[in-house]
Amino acid sequence: MTNSVPKPVMDAEELNAFLSQVYPQLNDHLEGYRVVDVKPGGCTVRLQASEQHLRPGATVSGPALFTLADIGGYACVLSHLGPEALCVTTNLNINFMRKAEAGEILGRSRILKLGRSLMVFDVEMITPANGLTVAHASGTYSIPPKK
Amino acid sequence: MTNSVPKPVMDAEELNAFLSQVYPQLNDHLEGYRVVDVKPGGCTVRLQASEQHLRPGATVSGPALFTLADIGGYACVLSHLGPEALCVTTNLNINFMRKAEAGEILGRSRILKLGRSLMVFDVEMITPANGLTVAHASGTYSIPPKK
Amino acid sequence: MTNSVPKPVMDAEELNAFLSQVYPQLNDHLEGYRVVDVKPGGCTVRLQASEQHLRPGATVSGPALFTLADIGGYACVLSHLGPEALCVTTNLNINFMRKAEAGEILGRSRILKLGRSLMVFDVEMITPANGLTVAHASGTYSIPPKK
Amino acid sequence: MTNSVPKPVMDAEELNAFLSQVYPQLNDHLEGYRVVDVKPGGCTVRLQASEQHLRPGATVSGPALFTLADIGGYACVLSHLGPEALCVTTNLNINFMRKAEAGEILGRSRILKLGRSLMVFDVEMITPANGLTVAHASGTYSIPPKK
């Protein structure tokens, strides 16, 4: 017996449509976050980092990468439980390892545990242009009780 | 002998002027972050949370609070070391405890250690309207070597 | 209105008696952890660090300080909820800031949120001999549902 | 180009011999930690959890799993840099996901970044008896300057 891999119930396009409806702030003010893949036990979210996501030193900012990690967890919980907008992050820990320039960054998130009330996940953030890992995060989403 | 409390070399207005010069993205796209106090060993940063900082459930988003914590650390390191824009976050851990509505949120940051190459800090985020702690973060900034 | 401060229902001696009954491993193999104070919203646990708690470099080891932080959280949840041994840590983040030699280390823990199913806390670990903060932790305990 | 995978310079037996010499506390008081594999970019450490590693509820304690994660990082930095005992943990974040009974637990650690002064790693802890992930950690080791 191994960790049973949970199965998704929403795909990337359904997630993007749902996010643009319930969370318009995500791309109105910080454009560039899109779910690009959903598979059993994980998701990939892409940040197309532009001028507005940079910090001093012309590198992608901590908040922009945190957002990528957080949306990665949100995409995991939504895609595997269905459109329950009120799941919320309770903890997120992020390590910043290398500077990333403007351009594409992929956040590959993975469900470590999907329980009844909590989901634990991690996210590896890489710049596909050079294959480097720029940041790594792990965190917890709280799942509201079924009505 | 006790922990020697480091002394600031920049005040709140100098910090805000420096941030608007080197980090225009902070308030161009996510208006509302201002340093409101600097004292030996710590700073207070205010987020005036509006519609654009909210997530589903009409509560202040994780990324908006992460930004408040991260700027709290940046304000600590800048105010106590001087205008060294290239200090960068290497780790940040954040716990979200209570939902916060739009309005004022204060991030009270505290330097736990100011070494030659690393600064460790924590930030307590409260809603002054009701005195509640909404989130708590701790993290590390890396300080570049003196030229 | 401010954060309501929760009131303890067990004192330091009751906690030590309870810990030695339900968690004999704590002091059988790693002697030296004792609750020395309980007050509304927090506790102090003392580690009397000896040879067995050291790591290479003759400084107190990471696991010994993690244990101090973890017991600090456990003392908070037990003292404020009553003797519910099955509360468990779900997350703990610790920053190590200064080396500590053998001797007394105090872990001052503080309840940041006491909810129905989760308690969030932080712990500042100091060496009273010189007043220095050697480590800082924050974490979450899960509280089992009432039967 | 991809992340260059660092190459180990010590194998599992060399690591165990070095650990028993410089860090006798590890197995004198909490027997059961052994490096069982070293490969480019990572290590596996085994905890043979017995009565002494349990907490209330007869499950493997947080400190025992923290130790497994911490030794996983130490094994990574030692095996890839050589026998530099004075590398120290600066941060470790751990999520506890499932209860583990006494028995074998494997900590599979992975180097996420090996820089000149810092190494970032993560560790997945599984119970091979059932293939479940019981805990996950990420952290940072500080590497002392070359003399």
Explain what the structure shows.
Four copies of one chain form a homotetramer. Chain A has 147 residues and is an alpha+beta fold. Chain A has a single domain, classed as Hotdog Thioesterase (Thiol Ester Dehydrase, Chain A, Roll). Helix content of chain A is 24%, strand content 41%. In chain A, strands 1-2-6-7-8-5 form a six-stranded antiparallel β-sheet. In chain A, strands 3-4 form a two-stranded antiparallel sheet. The longest helix of chain A has 20 residues. Chain A is globular, with a radius of gyration of 15 Å. The mean pLDDT of chain A is 92.
What coarse outline of chain A follows from CA principal-axis ratios? globular
Annotated CATH homologous superfamily of chain A: Hotdog Thioesterase
User: Remind me, CATH topology of chain A?
Assistant: Thiol Ester Dehydrase, Chain A
Q: Write down how many β-strands of chain A occur, each being a DSSP E stretch of 2 or more residues.
A: 8
Family (chains A, B, C, D): Belongs to the thioesterase PaaI family.
Domain Thioesterase (chains A, B, C, D): 59-128
Organism (chains A, B, C, D): Hoeflea poritis
Keywords (chains A, B, C, D): Hydrolase
